[in-house]
Amino acid sequence: MNVRLRILKCIADPRFGGPHRLSFAIAERLHAEGIETVFLFGPQTDESGPACPFEHFHLRHLLFLRRRHPILNLFAFLLWLPWNILRIRKLIRSRRIDVVDVDGVLNVPPALTAWLCRVPVLWCYNDHLPRAVRLVLLPLVARLATKVVIQGECLRQARTASHPLLRQKAAVLHTGTDTTVFDPDRYGVEARRRIREQWNIPSASPLIGTVGNLNPFKGHEHFLRAAAQIKKQVPDARFIVVGRRLTTTPGYWERLQQLTAALNLERDVIYTGFCDDIPSMLAALDVFVLASIRESCPNAVLEAMAMKVPVVASDVGAVSELVADGRTGTIVPPHSPEAIAAAVLEHLARTPDQIETMTSAARRRVQTEFSLDRIAQRQEELYARLDRRRTHRRNDDGPDAEHAGKE
Q: How many structural domains comprise the chain?
C-alpha cells in the first residue's frame, strides 16, 4: 500500500475511554486511504483498557497537571521533560511523521517537540481547565499549534473568545460513531435478553442506564438522585451504571456508594465496571441518560442515538449540537435530577410508535452528520491541508531546510 501520510496520535490520558475507541476506529478507516497512524500514550496502568491494534509507544509524565499530587506531578513532569522531548523527537524522525495530532491541551511535550521539529501540530482542545491554567496555557497552544480542533461550535466560540490567534486557528470537528457497530439490527431482542439475564434484571422492568467512567464530571450523583425520583413513579424500574471505577478519583466511588445506600437504591442500581461491549448494553436499555456537568462532545450520546435508544442529556458542551431537543432526544439543564427524572418518565410513557419515530430520527441524524466515515473524511482533510502547508513552507525555505528537517 502506498503510504501518503504518517500521523503521530498522542493521547496522554491512560484511562481507556471514548477518545481511544474513536481514535482507533478512525485510524483503521484512514489506513485504507494510505494514512498510517502511530500512537503515543501515557504510562500503562490497570485502566489502560484493551491493547492498541496499531504501532504504539508509552511515555511517563506527559501531563504537567493532575488532580492527585499536583506539586509532585509537576516536579516529575519538569524532570522528565527533556527525556520525553528527545524520545518524541526520535520517534518523529524515525517514523517520518508528517503531522502530530495531540489530544488535550495539557499534553504539551508532543506539541512542543513537533514545533521544534517543524512538523505541523493538530491540537484538540477538549479539556476543562481552571482559569489560571487557561491564562498560562492557551497562548502557548495558539503559538505552537498549526490548527486547533474544538468539538463543537458553541465550544469554539466560548474557548477562543479572548484569544484572536487561537480563534483564527480553530476548526470545529465533532466526535463520530461507527453506525455499522452501533447498529440496533445487529443486537435487538437477543442482546436485550442476554444482558438482562446476566445482571438479573426482570425482562419487564424499565431499564435506565448511563455510560461513562466514574469521575465527578459525569454527574453520576445526579443520575442516582433522578433514579430515586423515578422509583417513586415506576417502582419496578432498574438502573445501570456502565463505566470503570478510576484510581485517580477513589473518593468519588465511595461517595456514590454512600449515596446509593442513602437513597435505598442498593437493590435497584447496578455498577457493571468496565465493559467492552457497549452496543449490547445499550440494546438492553429503555432510556439512556447523560447526567454530566461538563463535557466536550460526548460520544456516548451519539452511540445511544445510533442504537435507537431514547436519550436524555444535560445541556453541556456540544450536546445541543448532537441532540435535536424534542425530535431526537431530550435536553435538560445540568445539575438537575428533577429534570432528568421528568424527562425519563416522559419517555417511558410514550407509545411504541412515538418511540420509534424519535429514535429513528436520532439514528438518521447520526448517520448523516456524525457517522465515523464522515468524521474520518474530515480528519483526513485536516491532515492533508496541514501536510500541504508543510510542503509549501519547505519549498519556500529551499532544499537545505528540507534536508535539515530529515536529518
A: 2
Q: pTM to 2 decimals?
A: 0.89
Domain of residue 360: give its range.
184-369
Say how far apart CA 18 and CA 290 lie, in whole Å. Answer: 14
Q: What are phi and psi of 63, to 5 degrees?
A: -100, 130
Closest CA to 317 of 128, 70, 148, 177: 128
Q: Mapped to the 3 state alphabet, what secondary structure does 279-348 carry?
A: HHHHHCCCEEEECCCCCCCCHHHHHHHHCCCCEEEECCCCHHHHCCECCCEEEECCCCHHHHHHHHHHHH
45 burial class (0-12, 13-18, 19+ CB within 10 angstroms)?
middle
Confidence of residue 77 (pLDDT cuts 50, 70, 90): very high
Q: Is 339 exposed, middle or buried (0-12, 13-18, 19+ CB in 10 A)?
A: buried
| Residues 160 and 189 occupy one common structural domain | no
* 352 and 279 share one domain: yes
Inter-residue contact 210 to 222 (CB < 8 Å): no
Q: What are the pLDDT digits (tens) for 284-334?
A: 999 999 999 999 999 999 999 999 999 999 999 999 999 999 999 999 999
Percentages of the chain per state (helix, strand, coil), in multiples of 5: 50, 15, 35
Residues 196, 69 share a domain: no
**Cell numbers 435536553 correspond to what residue?**
331
43: CATH? 3.40.50.2000
Residue 314 sits in the same domain as residue 348: yes
Judgement on whether residues 190 and 274 belong to the same structural domain of the protein: yes
Q: Cell for 346?
A: 416522559
User: CA-CA distances (angstroms) from residue 41 to 3, 10, 66, 189?
Assistant: 23, 6, 16, 38
| Residues 379, 252 share a domain | no
Are 310 and 207 part of one and the same domain?
yes
- Least confidently predicted of 140-144, 359-363, 377-381, 398-402: 398-402
- Integer-rounded Cα Rg, in Å, for the chain is 22
DSSP string covering 138-182, please? Answer: HHHHHHH-SEEEES-HHHHHHHSTT-HHHHHHEEE----B-TTTS
Residue 164 β-bridge partners: none
Q: Whose grid coordinates read 506539586? A: 71
- Regarding whether 164 and 21 lie in a shared domain, the answer is yes
Closest by CA to 279, choosing from 375, 198, 176, 186, is: 186
